[in-house]
Amino acid sequence: MQVTTSFKLVRMNDYSRIMYRNADLNAAFIVLNPKVIKL
Which residues of the chain fall short of a pLDDT of 50? Predict the structure, then answer.
């Protein structure tokens, strides 16, 4: 039981880190490539 709880916490932590990293990459991509956004 403790192992599964720790595993879930680790998975959630990795997921959060991946989401934050993707947000940073998307922001950098938008800043570096303004032509991508066609408003």
Answer: 39
Cβ atoms 37, 30 nearer than 8 A: yes
Which alpha helices (H) appear in 1-39, and where do they start and end? 2-32
For the chain, the domains span 2-36
The helix/strand count (H/E) of the chain reads as 1, 0
Instruction: Kindly provide the b/e burial profile for residues 5-22, where b requires at least 16 CB atoms within 10 angstroms of the residue's own CB.
Output: eeeeeeeeeeeeeeeeee
The answer to whether 36 touches 30, Cβ cutoff 8 Å, is yes
Predicted TM-score (pTM) of the model is 0.37
